[in-house]
Amino acid sequence: MTRTPAGLSAITFTLDRTSPIPLYHQLAQQLEAAIERGVLTPGNRLGNEVDLSVRLGLSRPTVRQAIQSLVDKGLLVRRRGVGTQVVHRQVKRPLELSSLYDDLEADGQRPTTRVLRNETVPASADVAAALGIAEGSEVTVLERLRFTHDRPVAFLCNYLPADLVPLGNAHLETTGLYRMLRSAGITLHSARQIIGARSAAPEEALRLDEKEGAALLTMQRTAYDDTGRAVEYGTHIYRASRYAFDFQLLVRP
Amino acid sequence: MTRTPAGLSAITFTLDRTSPIPLYHQLAQQLEAAIERGVLTPGNRLGNEVDLSVRLGLSRPTVRQAIQSLVDKGLLVRRRGVGTQVVHRQVKRPLELSSLYDDLEADGQRPTTRVLRNETVPASADVAAALGIAEGSEVTVLERLRFTHDRPVAFLCNYLPADLVPLGNAHLETTGLYRMLRSAGITLHSARQIIGARSAAPEEALRLDEKEGAALLTMQRTAYDDTGRAVEYGTHIYRASRYAFDFQLLVRP
DNA sequence: TAGTGGTCTAGACCACACG
DNA sequence: GTGTGGTCTAGACCACTAC
Q1: For residue A250, which residues of chain B lie inside 8 Å, CB to CB?
Q2: Of the residues A186, A222, A240, B51, which has the maximum number of CB atoms within 10 A of its CB?
Q3: For B6-24, what is the mean pLDDT?
Q4: How far apart are the C-alpha atoms of A74 and A93, rounded to whole Å?
Q5: Which nucleotide is nearest to B64 (CA to C1')?
């Protein structure tokens, strides 16, 4: 006997074939919304792909593609011979290239930034190596203090190829670096991050309003765009008493 | 004119249709190997999918699936109207659910482990909450010290549902916890990690051979399996002087 | 044995980038 | 215009799971 799962049958899908949004994406969005709204609850079976495709008037590969995208997001699990189910525990925040500004803002923290330094200098050996450019090439060096509730959270030092994008202080104080890069048409592709800890040196302690010797969280990051070109190299220092990295991550199948 | 890129034409692909390994996976492996060996160098175009499928005697969707898997890994980039290229900077180590043991071993560090505690206790409120089980349920609590070169690197405290898998001390001393879970047939699916820092308390300093007040790197993690069931909750403390998290991560398109 | 997802085919048309 | 990837179809057979 073929049972249509209660949750799924309660959903009316509306697919617009004239829309520029791909059909599989429309379907995926509506499935995700149904999960979000609780119409499809954890453990609910999704019903087999063939039935679903017939019901929607789509081909099976298209339906599969929609389902697959949600599997990749960690919302669904497929088991051969069993079926497709909603994962019991929802993935709240998928791991992304963490932008401190976005993280804080998403947290309702209303971050602010003070630009301490913004100038063009020749790249030192280590910066050149990190960015994969010639030593002495022009790079923009950026030093910023980030605050929430008028208290410092982090000291951010970044290096970018000088010709990449104009970095006005006004914008830097009201938004995050990654947003500026994105709106300049630069799409980030990958990054390497090293997260460690160390004790605060006297000048660091002063800058961050911590005691000397307090534990600090550190991150070094190099970010790359589509073509593999290094776009940004940074050294960040966070007050461990006010910040921690919160990752949700998926295991590659 | 259609040019076959030099790199690609130099490769002979061998596809075994009788193999249980899917064709798209065989192709993906061989493409990846070619990139690894340097036959396909960064910037090399991969040639269009239609030609490739004809040459290999595969359908285009199958070839696409192979290419897509490498795009997902961050090795290739596709651009509509342009083509498929090898990414300039290679992704060295994709982000995975980091296993300290595996990380150290991959680094040639020959990690060792001393089990300090391994017993079954009723779950406290916070452990029960983290694992999503009833307070007072039986959990296995594990305390381990991990060494490299006979010096401590980390103190690991983990809680697992008691009935999950037998955890013999002998195995725990010679391998990692995640390997034991995997060989018990548990496939990890997702995890939430919180990485922070703090100063060493006296007893922590003693245990890790650090000075009191030294900066320590901390991680809290809850790991989940396929079904969304919490499999493990742990609190780890690392010597910041000897360990840092090294992530390579991709931005979701 | 029945039902599920996993793989694969051989086409088709479209949107976009580039010369 | 030409070539590229992006999307979509309507089937097919197989492997695995559960009963």
Answers
A1: 189-190
A2: A240
A3: 85
A4: 11
A5: D5
Answer whether B189's CB lies under 8 Å from B96's CB. Answer: no
pTM of the complete model: 0.89
Q: How far apart are alpha carbons B220 and B175 in whole angstroms?
A: 21
Place of tokens 């879970």: B181
Residue A91 pLDDT > 70: no
- Rounded to whole angstroms, the distance from the CA of residue A55 to the C1' of nucleotide D3 is 36
Burial annotation B132-166 (CB, 10 A radius, 16+ → b, else e): ebeeeeebbbbbbbbbbeeebbbbbbbbbbbebbe
- The predicted-structure confidence for B190-228, as pLDDT tens digits, reads as follows 899 999 999 999 999 999 999 999 999 999 999 998 888
Distances (CA, A) of A133 to A126, A162, B73, B85: 10, 11, 25, 21
Beta carbons of A132 and A230 less than 8 angstroms apart: yes
Residue B206: partners with Cβ closer than 8 Å, 6 or more residues away: none
List A97's β-bridge partners, or say none.
none
Q: Where are the domains of chain A?
A: 6-86, 91-246
Query: How far apart are the C-alpha atoms of B148 and B158, rounded to whole Å?
Result: 20
Quote the tokens at residue B89: 């900077």
Question: What number of other Cβ atoms are within 10 A of residue A206's Cβ?
Answer: 11
Residue with tokens 């994969």: A132
Task: Please check whether residue B181 touches A, CB under 8 A.
Answer: no
Q: CA dist A47 to B8, B14, B34, B65, Å?
A: 42, 38, 40, 24
Give the tokens for residue A88: 């019991």
Confidence (pLDDT) at A93: 58
Tokens representing A114?
A: 């003070």
Nearest one of A122, A102, A98, A121 to A110, comparing CA atoms:
A102
Strand C contact set, beta carbon < 7 A: A 1-2, 20, 46-51, 60-61, 64, 78-84; B 22-25, 57-62, 65, 79-82
Render A225-239 in DSSP notation, one character per residue: ETTS-EEEEEEEEEE
| CATH node for B91-246 | 3.40.1410.10
Question: A6-86: which CATH architecture?
Answer: Orthogonal Bundle (1.10)
Give CA separation, B170 vs B143, B166, B177, B198, B235, in Å: 14, 11, 12, 32, 22
For residues A101 and A110, what is the distance between their CA atoms, to the nearest angstrom?
9
**Residue ranges of B 75-114 with Cβ closer than 8 A to chain A:** 77, 79, 85, 87-89, 91-92, 94-97
